[in-house]
Amino acid sequence: MPLDADRIVKQYEQAKQLRQPHEPGWRSAAAHCIPAQYSAWLTDGPAPSNSKTEAARRVSYDTTGARSLLKYASVLNRLITPDGQKWHGLMASDPTLRKKARVRAYFDELTNLLFKMRYDPKARFKISMNEVYKSMGVYGSGPVYIGERRVSLHNPVGGFKYVACSMRDVFFLVDDDGETSIVFRRFWLNVRQFKEKFPGVPMAPDMAAEASKPSPDETRYFEFIHYVCRADDYDPQAIDRRRHPWHACYVEVKGKTIIGEETGYRSMPYKIPRTETVAGDAYGYSPAVLSLAALGTASQIKKTVLKQGNKAVDPVILAADDNTMNGEFDQRPGAVNYGAIDRQGRQLVKAMETGNFRVAENLLADERRDVEDSFFVTLFQILTETPEMTATEVMERTAEKAALLAPTMGRGQSELIGPTIEREIDICDEMGKLPQMPPELVEAEGEYEVVYTSPLARSMYAEEVSGFMRSVEMALGVANATQDMEILDHYDFDTAMPEIAEHMSVPARWMADPDKIKAKRKGRNAREEQSEMMKNAPALASAAKTVTEMGGRRARG
Fold it and tell me: What is the DSSP letter of 433?
């Protein structure tokens, strides 16, 4: 049935109420970790364009949260969507089809197409993902819109479009399984901006009244929402919006008016990955909120230390009474203050002691360490702090990191990377850019699986690699002690080494293919045979000479 503006606005207000309990913590987290967004949380209208960090400066005195957030976003980007690497692949769901060259070639071509369109500068994928990761670190959720970039005069090719959405302006509802089923994204437009975004579309009555003025007010904004929900009248055979499983529209909130036509999507255009969730709660639980107590304490300690340091540099002067030196004390360098000591040399004026800086420094270091632990900063300092580790120890530490990051990896795959790839393939299909599918894959209805190849995904194999290396080290110890190398026959190095290289992210072009390995071994065997012949040449020559001489004597006899 058609979407109803009154029902949408009412549901929107309820979604705002459901999110309200989270907002005080998010405001505090923004003040400590991303000050530029703090002032936006202090208003319910368009975000202020100036003095964005001034209010936050009065809240947070320590920059540990802001610095840790940048590192956290970099860590997630490096481990989940690393630049310059193909961090995922595609393969057929049917194991029998995976062996067919045409099917593998199709998915290789499709993967290359996705990466090409995804990393088009106009798509803004890298910029948006960085904002998503920071939003996950501060608010626990990182909404991003993934849509089609329409062909235009300035964009003759078209492609993907990624837009990171401010958590302040996104409200969503989930179903019983915790899956996002309804999204509201709010924004504000003045009359001029409305005409640019919706050319030729009728305005709501309240906005039309403003537009009728000779000079519409540039400072008057109207609230809108982009509403996306699951279809309740889905019909794949229809030719209107009902052919899409997701319905959407724009609504002017105050006038409760649907703007333009209702539209649809083949898949949810908003992806909302979360760092961690609590049962029964739709919104994520962020590292910043987890460490909010440490962030606040560090800020207060830093404030106290600043006051203490100011007193130490410009100390409070203590005098015996107001008649000492007639109440005048010259603190300029080289100044002489007569009357500051009595006849016994005792000071009548001195600076007040400011306390113990070391205690404050230790307390501040503890709080900063707690914050950095929450953002995984200390987790990635292990290898740099102990560079003398052996390769096996490095793999064991990597396995430990993989275990600690497994929940983050699972969230990243199930709520961001997997849904993003699904959405991108739908857009490619709608644009008619999918490669020609082989017949056997058409018969299987194109079923596919995502293969994650990011460093974090590969690090899940670190424990296997570490176990193999430890076992080989023990076997070598036994072989050296017994002088019997047969103990190494238990290991299939031809199978293990290529897999270990793959798990350790060694580029395939750096590894020799089976034909090259075969040629190397053939050449090595030939050289060994030649060397053995050279070694035995004198003995063979002597034997040949002896045989020749014996043959000569027999002939003469």
Answer: -
Q: Closest Cα partner for 41 from 49, 31, 32?
A: 31
Q: Over the range 362-381, which residues count as b (16 or more CB within 10 Å of their CB) and which as e?
A: eebeebbebbbbbbbbebbe
CA nearest 270: which of 244, 234, 241, 246? 246
Q: Is 507 exposed, middle or buried (0-12, 13-18, 19+ CB in 10 A)?
A: exposed
Please give the model's pTM, rounded to 2 decimal places: 0.79
Strands (E), 39-179: 88-92, 144-149, 159-164, 170-174
d(CA 124, CA 126): 6
Containing 462, the helix (H) or strand (E) segment is helix 462-482
Q: pLDDT tens digit string along 375-426?
A: 888 776 654 555 566 655 655 665 566 666 767 777 888 899 999 999 999 9
Q: Considering Cα of 94, then 99, then 101, then 106, what sign does the dihedral take?
A: positive
Instruction: Give the residue from 256, 255, 186, 190 showing the smallest Cα distance to 222.
Output: 190
For 144-199, what is each residue's pLDDT tens digit? Answer: 999 998 877 777 788 999 999 999 999 999 998 888 999 999 999 999 999 999 99
Burial class (CB in 10 A: 0-12, 13-18, 19+), 496: middle
